[in-house]
Amino acid sequence: MAILRYPDDARRVEHPDEIVRALRPLGIVYEQWEPTRPVGPDATPETVLEVYAPDIERLKREGGYVTADVIQVKPETPGLEEMLRKFSREHRHDEDEVRFILQGSGVFHIRPEGGAVVAIQVEAGDLLRVPAGTLHWFDLCPDRRIRAIRLFKDASGWVPRYTESGVDRSYQPVCLGPAHVPA
């Protein structure tokens, strides 16, 4: 389940309905999918796409997406540090960024025009759609693992357009969970 945080004033929202209501004015879609079609951690991308085909087809119809793939990042991923530097700089895209998280966790920081930064921690079962043009960046949680289905409107995928604002350097990718709960 996602956790929504407002880093500037320390508010935190965890209930899925509250998260949906809080993100709606920003144009961000959040859904929580029940693991009715679980796939093992070693399932091939083709198997993952086959298992989730009904959900993917619904999203394609609703959002005009034409292709889907599976991304998997783990500590041993070649070029991980370079990849993470690309994700963790504030940017926008000319198309939506759609992610359904299968495994692992990370934090999307969203900076609405004229608004405060919002941090959305996503984990397995969370679907997030960040609309085209939305300023954002992404960091992995400390275990440095994530596996997600991505959807695209352009078969070549999206290209980040970096702002070079530097605002992303003012926010830490703090993930909540067992590692952050006092004993």
> Which second-level CATH architecture applies?
Sandwich
Estimated helix fraction = 10-25%
**Overall morphology:** globular
- The helix/strand class is alpha+beta
**Spans with pLDDT under 50 lasting ≥5 residues?**
178-183
* H/E element sequence: EEHEHHEHEEEEEEE
CATH class: Mainly Beta
CATH topology: Jelly Rolls
Q: Tell me the CATH superfamily.
A: Jelly Rolls
Total strand count, please? Answer: 11
The fraction of residues in strands falls at 25-35%
For the sheet with most strands, the description reads: 9 strands, antiparallel
From the N-terminal CA to the C-terminal CA, the straight-line distance is 22 Å
- Mean pLDDT comes to 87
Count of separate structural domains: 1
Q: Provide a count of the helices.
A: 4
Q: What does the secondary structure layout of this molecule look like, with pairings?
A:
Elements: E1 3-6, E2 11-13, H1 16-23, E3 29-32, H2 45-51, H3 53-63, E4 67-73, H4 80-87, E5 91-92, E6 97-111, E7 118-123, E8 126-130, E9 135-140, E10 146-152, E11 161-162
